[in-house]
Write a structure and sequence with these properties.
154 residues; 5 helices
Length: 154
């Protein structure tokens, strides 16, 4: 994750507490679009595909990204719910949030597995596996960044 993206994420957290909901959504969408652009550039560089492979890869990748956008919407919702309940967290809310987080993680893994299979139909399995490695590494980096910004429950 670039310094620019980290600064934008921290700025968004600060701004989100002071601006109306519509502006928050706009800011989050701008940041998500920037992150997707950066991610696409990283994937492009890491994959080192031929033009023929690229023509087969990118349409499947776009489908994958569209599914991940929906899952990331849920991730944002979980973080917002966590933040709003942080000071008044009880056992029932904590259980509901952790259950949602586990369900989301399972859905992310299921989606990645589904698209490795789809990628292997479009391109060879070795290239599909390389993409899964890149995707997993990027997802882990983003997960770490998000986790480092969230305070632990008291």
């Amino acid at each position: 994750m670039s310094k620019f993206t980290k600064v934008m994420l921290m700025l968004a957290v600060a701004v989100c507490t002071a601006v109306p909901a519509l502006a928050q959504r706009d800011l989050i969408e701008i940041m998500r679009a920037d992150l997707r652009t950066q991610k696409t550039a990283i994937v492009t560089q890491a994959m080192q595909m031929t033009e023929a492979q690229s023509e087969l890869f990118w349409p499947v990748y776009k489908e994958y990204e569209n599914e991940m956008i929906k899952l990331n919407d849920e991730r944002i919702a979980i973080v917002k719910d966590y933040a709003s309940a942080y000071d008044t967290m009880d056992d029932a809310t904590a259980k509901q949030l952790i259950d949602r987080s586990f369900k989301l993680q399972e859905a992310r893994t299921k989606t990645l597995k589904k698209y490795v299979k789809e990628m292997s139909k479009a391109i060879d399995m070795k290239t599909a596996a390389r993409w899964a490695q890149v995707e997993h590494a990027l997802g882990s980096a983003i997960d770490l960044q998000v986790a480092s910004e969230l305070p632990l429950l008291r």
